[in-house]
Design brief:
Elements (H helix, E strand, L loop, with lengths): L6 H5 L3 H9 L5 H19 L2 E4 L1 H17 L10 E5 L26 H8 L3 E6 L11 E2 L3 E2 L1 E2 L2 E5 L5 H8 L5 E6 L5 H7 L2 E4 L19 E6 L2 H11 L29 E4 L10 H15 L4 E4 L7 H23 L6 H10 L4 H21 L5 E5 L15 E2 L2 E2 L8 H9 L3 E8 L5 E7 L5 H17 L30 E2 L6 E2 L4
Parallel strand pairs: 2-3, 2-8, 11-12, 11-13
Antiparallel strand pairs: 1-3, 4-5, 6-7, 8-10, 9-10, 9-16, 13-17, 14-15, 16-17, 18-19
Length: about 500
């Protein structure tokens, strides 16, 4: 046994530290899993981040992982680490609902490509993490599992669509979680919950589940509590897959161990709003404060005079195209099963024709070139992740920002979806608290396929920020989460379909 005698001490360790403790036999994978399950039992009723659990198979996998440690076998990079899987990603034999009434009893027969790869790397699938209905929206709430509350204030939203993963990480329920990102679904919840979320370059992580195989709008990615944990998970995630035409060969060694960079060597370009996004004055103020402090640590810091206004219509079209491909058949056969956000995307799609699609792809190409050209002068572009502090989860989305009405349910995500269009890798880095006392994240953007360098730059920035007095990654008040928040379940109208509870699921088909 190590000096970590209390489960609470154990689950607070980073994934990298936990992996080292397992390898050195200071802790066992069984011990770690038990501590994570105990933390889930303790805190999940308060934040509702975890959906279906897989206790029985996870415990069996932890026992096997312990045997490998004892036998002296070579250990995979994520050996024995409990993993949360976003409930949009198929897990063999484990309830995968997508937060949708039609799929509330769905038990896939096979894992998706990312889950399979992470299991091969030694991770132990422990639970599914909550999402908006079909992943549509930046607020994690659905009629199957209910809403996920922000760990810093459970009356506020945790972001989305990877909100369950972000909240689970912030409360130390799990050391690593998966996510995915179309308009900001990795970056936004990471920023609102004080963790790290990386949107990789398209093709870095294989995705065998896209309806449009050549579309770069949606990617899968890692989430962790710090940059090194995220890089370790990324190293175990990258690589091609025969069912992903965008896949590119990437070496795990590019990401782990991370190359060391000096913050003083970096040239950064800065924008608070891309000349196109509404942003709350308090967030703008917090961002300006962070940039003022950062500017004295880097080689150069220059504000960008950009206007990416054409990106809004461009994203509308490309997003609608993706939703039409994914949901047109369900809309024809089971329209009643689709939530309002999905239906809104399909309604938008009906307004567009081939000319709109052509113009959108032309605009995206121009935007991509604008970003790439800027990287001739900058190593990194820095922007806010979110335009406002978390709002109550009972509000489906932000309808207005600084007096500017939002055109639809996702325009408030424009700080991240404009970056999505560039296809550049982007990372949300925790940078303390905003002026309302909630977590604040910086969005760090690097050139296409320079994901490993992005992580190294983020690590250098994280190291500097942590050394500032009182500036470590913000942590929620776990004592305040000791009382369950019953209203997080008030949206449940179609609960998940299974017999039993927790680790004694006996799945049956949805009706």
């Amino acid at each position: 046994m190590s000096d970590l005698d209390q489960p609470s001490d154990l689950v607070a360790q980073t994934a990298v530290a936990l992996r080292d403790l397992i390898a050195s036999r200071d802790i066992s994978p069984v011990e770690l899993l038990d501590a994570c399950l105990a933390r889930i039992d303790q805190l999940n009723p308060s934040v509702n981040a975890i959906c279906a659990r897989d206790d029985v198979r996870a415990k069996a996998a932890a026992l096997e992982a312990e045997k490998k440690v004892r036998s002296g076998d070579a250990l995979a990079p994520l050996h024995g680490l409990p993993l949360g899987v976003k409930d949009l990603q198929d897990t063999a034999g484990l309830l995968t609902t997508y937060g949708n009434v039609r799929l509330r009893g769905n038990v896939p027969k096979v894992d998706n490509a990312l889950v399979s790869r992470l299991k091969q790397a030694g991770a132990i699938v422990t639970a599914k993490t909550n999402v908006p209905d079909m992943g549509a929206g930046g607020n994690t709430r659905n009629p199957v599992w209910g809403a996920t509350g922000n760990p810093f204030n459970t009356k506020l939203n945790a972001g989305g669509s990877s909100g369950g993963s972000a909240a689970a990480l912030a409360t130390d329920m799990l050391p690593l979680c998966t996510g995915s990102d179309t308009g900001g679904s990795l970056r936004l919840p990471a920023a609102l919950c004080g963790v790290v979320g990386l949107r990789p370059s398209p093709g870095m992580i294989a995705n065998d589940a896209r309806s449009l195989g050549w579309s770069a709008i949606s990617v899968l990615g890692p989430m962790g509590r710090n940059v090194e944990d995220t890089a370790l998970m990324m190293s175990a995630s990258v690589g091609c897959h025969p069912m992903d035409p965008l896949g590119i060969p990437v070496a795990a060694s590019d990401f782990w161990p991370l190359a060391e960079l000096d913050l003083s060597d970096l040239r950064i370009g800065v924008t608070a709003d891309f000349g196109a996004c509404a942003i709350d004055p308090l967030i703008r103020s917090t961002f300006n404060q962070r940039i003022k402090a950062l500017s004295s640590q880097v080689k150069s810091c220059q504000w960008l005079d950009w206007d990416l206004s054409e990106g809004h219509h461009c994203f509308d079209v490309i997003r609608a195209e993706s939703f039409l491909a994914g949901f047109a058949e369900v809309n024809r056969t089971h329209p009643e099963s689709l939530g309002p956000n999905v239906r809104a995307n399909l309604a938008i799609a009906e307004k567009f024709g081939l000319a709109d699609r052509a113009q959108a792809h032309l605009t995206q190409t121009q935007l991509f070139k604008q970003f790439q050209t800027s990287f001739e002068d900058f190593d990194l572009i820095v922007a806010p992740v979110t335009p406002l502090s978390p709002f109550p989860w009972k509000l489906p989305y932000a309808q207005e920002i600084d007096g500017v009405p939002q055109r639809n349910y996702y325009e408030w995500l424009s700080l991240t979806y404009l970056v999505t269009l560039s296809t550049c890798p982007a990372l949300s880095l925790p940078m303390g608290l905003d002026e309302t006392g909630m977590p604040f994240g910086l969005q760090l953007i690097a050139p296409l396929r320079q994901d490993a360098r992005l992580l190294s730059m983020a690590k250098a920035m994280e190291r500097w920020w942590t050394l500032q007095e009182g500036s470590s990654r913000p942590l929620p008040d776990l004592q305040a989460l000791s009382q369950p928040t019953a209203d997080l379940k008030e949206l449940v109208t179609h609960p998940p379909v299974f017999d039993g509870i927790s680790d004694i699921f006996e799945m049956r088909p949805a009706v």
